[in-house]
Amino acid sequence: MGNEKTGFLLSAAFVGLASLRDVYFGGLLQRVHPLAVAITAFGLCTVVFLAGALVGDRPGLAMLWRHRRRLAWVNATTALAWLSFFFALRAAEPALVQILFFGVGPLSVAWLDARVTGTPPAARSATERRLQAGLAGALLLAALVVVTGRSGLGPQPLGHAIVGVVLALGGGTSIALSQLLCRTLNDAGVRPATLIALRFPGAVVLAGVLAPVTGGDVLAGLTPGVLAGVGLASFLLIVVPNYVNQIGVALASPVTVRAVVALGPVLVFALQTLEGRLSPSSGTLGVSVIYALLVVAAAIARHRAISVGPGLPRIATATR
After folding, report:
1. What pLDDT was estimated at residue 110?
2. pLDDT (0 to 100) of residue 311
3. Contact call for residues 21 and 237 (beta carbons, < 8 A)
4. End-to-end CA distance of the chain
């Protein structure tokens, strides 16, 4: 119970920091190339945490080497997820990107878990299946708000909007897989800080490989002052939240994490309204609230299903 409470608080801290991150980087990525931000942010993350691991947890690094094949998959899925996320933030409203990015995870996690850990998908009640269908509908509604120009960004070229939606969904599927893989390494005894140290080199390498072939000037707008700001923001809004989230995921149940993260889009909407860069969109607010309610309801339904267990009649639970 103590771990669950700590995981809940850390997940809440992650949601707050991640919401600030999405709003800040949503504006920054209009001026600075996503690949430049990725190289700066994840290069800094790797340097800081790898130095700490070399000093304080060499056995953990040795354990990661023994699990190097799984670590390689963590790097690959993390790189795809974050680069997709950054480019999606450039193409769509941050609140809607977060809905698509995080919302696709609960829909895909059971299928992914069965293939990563070999765990058979848990039986779902009729209520859970209806909520899952509702969540899929909320994601479709969010995508429609993007492509029809009813978001805070206003009308966008159709191809540009569709790319933003596809990147957010693809990145969300990748991050769900990455988190499952990270959880297996945590369960094997790897500390969260040590795993963070070697989780992001793949993102730096992929961004570096893509930089010469993107057709644009990756370094455009990256003045020394902007670079210093990106470095500081990367540490506070990417490095720290990732570390906090890594611990939260290791401590809290997936149900708790999903319920807390569900509130992120509403918070992002409030913050981006205060920022003033985007026009407030009733479509975005409506989808954010619907999404949050559905995810919280689904998390509660899953928690009840787990508490009752497959072999206990529901009437026995009600009489306790």
Report:
1. 63
2. 47
3. yes
4. 20
